[in-house]
Model the fold of this input.
Amino acid sequence: MGDVVLRERIGSVERLWLNRPEVENALNDAIYAALTKAFREVSQDPSVGAVIVTGMGNAFSRSADGEEIGAKYFTSREAYRGFLYRVRDFHTEIASVPKPVIAAVNGVASMGGIELALACDFIVASSAAKLGDCHPGGVGGGGASQTLRELVGARMTRWLLYTGELLDAQRALEVGLVQQVFPAVGFQESVLGLANQIVARRFGDSLARVKALTVQRDP
Done:
């Protein structure tokens, strides 16, 4: 089995590729572990100025891996609670990276995938992307009911959770779910250009300070 996360360094930018395209980059324990390791390493690497998280193939990530989660974590309330803690700690790990972390949504992002994107500092999307929550019954385990509210407000959050609608990229931009849309052709190059623009603005640990002041953390 190949690496479930591929790491690519381009100058001062570290790009992390979710690499399970055959299952639309469904998140599993191996991906969570590989991303956690990568985030911890780039946090300690002064040569990294920004991080991009994106997906191989036609999806960013449609969901967490239902088969693995069902087998490992739906066996008892205690086991499922452990899964929820793991996701919470993983999102906290992203918030703790002292550099900008950009979610580059190249395709569909829903359920666990949209929760991963929301945990990043901001979201940019390909014009071909589709974004939404889509958890069955509107109830997910990664805190989208709260992180969506920060971006789109309470009413649009309820709309997305109640209906399970997948928004196209332009509509997601209009409601504030994403901060920029780039054309599908050349999307990754556009995101890299944005990351380099951000890196060029840093002065010492200035961006880390900005992040520390603006990222919400659980009390």
